[in-house]
Each structure stands twice: as C-alpha cells, then as structure tokens.
Amino acid sequence: xxxxxxxxxxIACRRRFPQDRLIRIVKTAEGLVPYEKGVSGRSCxxxxxxxxxxxxxxxxxxxxxxxxEVPRAQLQELAEKLNMNV
Length: 86
Ligand SMILES: [Zn+2]
What we know:
The structure is a single chain. The protein has helices spanning 50-58, 61-66, 72-81, and strands at 7-9, 16-18, 23-28, 31-34, 42-46. The protein is of the alpha+beta class. It has a single domain (7-81), classed as 2-Layer Sandwich (Hypothetical Cytosolic Protein, Chain: A), CATH 3.30.1230.10. Strand 1 (7-9) and strand 2 (16-18) form a beta hairpin. The longest helix has 10 residues, at 72-81. The protein starts with 6 loop residues before the first strand and ends in a 5-residue tail after the last helix. Zinc ion (ZN) binds next to loops.
C-alpha cells in the first residue's frame, strides 16, 4: 500500500514538498514560532532554501500567508529563533 505523505507549499517558491521536509511556522498569540510539538495555531511552511528563507523575511510573506499584520519585531524574533540574520 502506498504511504500517504501530506504535501505542503513553500510560501516563497510555491513549490510543493512532503510536509516533513518543510519548516513549519506557527502563528500563536505571542507571535510566530518555529513549530514545536504541542504548539497549535495556523501555520505556514518554508522549504528551507536560503533564497526562500530570506525572501520570506524580506517580503514579509508571513503576513500574506496568514492574511494579517506581522510586525517587524515579530519577524525579528522569529529570525532569531531560526538563527537567521535579516
Ligand atoms: Zn521554497
């Protein structure tokens, strides 16, 4: 039997990948956080390539994906959690 592998789209390059290969970003009351077990909320996905990671922050694709304002400070916090320089 074929194993069911859910696919999700990277918000930057819009290509589809198996969900377990993507970086999941969850929107919580406190802001955006990289997925951890037990964290629930709306989420979006990034494939993890350098181009996509920087595009997501530069163009604030999170705001578009979540259809809500994502203040600069929240982006900065998320970047720090992902060990990124933006
Ligand atoms: Zn991508």
